[in-house]
Amino acid sequence: MLQVAASIDSTHEWVFVDGNLERDPWVQIEKQLLSGHFSYFGCTVMPGPQLKQAIPYAKKIKEQFPHITIIWGGYFASNQYKVSLDSGYVDYIINGPGDTAFPSLLNALENKLPLDGIKNLIYLKEGKPHKTAKEELPDLDKLPRLPYKKLNTFYALERYLPKTYLGKKTIAYHSSFGCPFTCSFCAVVPIYNARWKGKTAQGIYDDVKALKDLYNADAIEFHDNNFFVSEKRSVEFAKLIKNENMTWWGEARIDTMDKYKDESLAMLRESGCKMIFFGAETGNDEVLKKMDKGGTQTGEQIVKFAERLKQFNIIPEYSFVLGIPGETEDQVNKQIDEDIAFIKRIKKINPQTEIIIYTYSPVPTEGSDMYEQVLASGFKFPEKLEDWISPAWENFDLRKNPLTPWLKPYMIDKIKQFEVVLNGYYPTNSDVRLTPNKKRILKTISTLRYKAGFYKFPKEISLLQRVWKYRQPETEGF
Ligand code: B12
Ligand code: SF4
């Protein structure tokens, strides 16, 4: 929201409505639109629960305020552009970075200029979705500063600085666009096409330091798809932030970081980098290849790297994608068993490793072998925008129950039940509400199941997790 607002801050009047913070966002949206001051409704749309607001509000705005132009952006809008535009209530989609595209679109609409020359835009041309050319990634150091102070006039900034596992006040910060890789299951690929651009270490430090000084922030979550692409940038940033006494976290690739020098990893930890999120995906090298994981990641490397990080006291947070398509039912099931065994192997080598389990939910990475296999299996995305908010498709978005034809209910149960037992035996470090006593109890009641590999119906564990509101980093933030 901040970055979208920054792009038009010098040319337009704007207001924020944060759907996460309003009890009933419609009250605010309607009030603002009734004022008659506004011509556009911009909405950032990620798959999952955000759709429950984005879809009905866009529809209602079109019905009640037909003169308002509705513009969507974000990962859902860019990847599912066809169904969004076909709805009849989304007028334009910003496809990827909106920093130039958004102000250019407003300028074109206000001055009746042609839209074709605006990069990163999707709109209906002669009734068909038309994608304009992709723009070079912007120079992040030259983008306008984010309007934190103005946001503070709508919602107290303190509300965006939550207590997390990392610290008492945690900044969310995004320091780069895209990712240089092309994993065939990843939504970043169709939008960024293997491109990555990062802000300089000094630029990141200046922003973070300003927030620290203004609001006493003591921790940072870097929400970049791949923060650690450049060792030089990571180490430079670590050296700058080292004396600020802040704790931080970011997302990375195992093969990239395994190339980091020992002294670089030591510097990261010394500077406050406590935990790093890695896409481990699977321990099977053939499957890694099929996922087009790119680079040089292998199963053995995943294991060894978890061990390597132990000596630097950095917690690896490994994410796995289970339930990917296979030739036969047996093969899909066998792969799930192998992945479960692999996860247990990692836990044995470095018990501190945090495990995040997703089930594979296809994204439209056109041209990838895996997506071709998905289509051949009969899988189809919803044809109506409203279908995306049905409970079944919400589970798809949350990567919990992906409706893929090759994944049978007993396999989904197995994944879910293993996850419950694993989270019982090794409760996540990132749950600040879970006291050491509760963790001990969870571990005790899960021990037998975990060790014996008996995961069926772990009711006693899930009941406690429900009562104690066990935190799921997968959906609540990492
Ligand atoms: C932060 C984040 C979250 C936060 C959301 C916090 C919040 N308060 O909203 C949390 C952790 C809760 C979260 C959860 C989920 N997330 Co999330 N999340 C992200 C993350 C890391 C950053 C998004 C972001 O803020 N980027 C920074 C801004 C500046 O970039 P941007 O969003 O791309 O915006 C630019 C353009 O897209 C465009 N734009 C965007 N919106 C708009 C709107 C308008 C009007 C305009 C003009 C332009 C525009 O302009 C912006 C500036 O250039 C992305 C990955 C990533 N690094 O981008 C994943 C990501 C978006 N999440 C994803 C998913 C799947 C989820 C979940 C649904 C599932 C899950 N199990 O994780 C959940 C459910 C979310 C929910 N509760 O609704 C996927 C989407 C995959 C897909 N198929 O599309 C991503 C891409 C991660 C991934 N690689 O898989 N997420
Ligand atoms: S390395 Fe991560 S962000 Fe990059 S394409 Fe692969 S899964 Fe997506």
Q: Which labels suit this protein?
A:
478 residues, alpha/beta, Rossmann fold, pyruvate-formate lyase- activating enzyme, 3 domains, six-stranded parallel sheet, five-stranded mixed sheet, 43% helix, globular, binds cobalamin, binds iron/sulfur cluster
Radius of gyration: 23 Å
Q: Which strand order does the major sheet show?
A: 6-9-10-11-12-13
Mean pLDDT: 93
Q: What about the largest sheet?
A: 6 strands, parallel
- The name of the CATH superfamily of the largest domain reads tm_1862 like domain
Write the layout of secondary structure elements.
Elements: H1 2-8, H2 25-34, E1 40-44, H3 51-64, E2 69-73, H4 75-79, H5 81-86, E3 92-94, H6 101-110, E4 121-125, E5 128-131, H7 148-154, E6 170-173, E7 176-178, H8 188-192, E8 196-198, H9 201-215, E9 219-222, H10 231-241, E10 247-252, H11 254-258, H12 262-270, E11 273-281, H13 285-290, H14 299-310, E12 315-322, H15 329-349, E13 354-359, H16 369-376, H17 391-397, H18 409-425, H19 436-452, H20 459-467, H21 473-476
Parallel strand pairs: 1-2, 2-3, 6-9, 9-10, 10-11, 11-12, 12-13
Antiparallel strand pairs: 3-4, 4-5, 7-8
Helix pairs in contact: 9-10, 10-12, 18-19
The structure holds cobalamin and iron/sulfur cluster.
How would you summarize what this structure contains?
With 478 residues, the protein is α/β, with parallel strands linked by helices. The chain contains 21 helices and 13 strands.
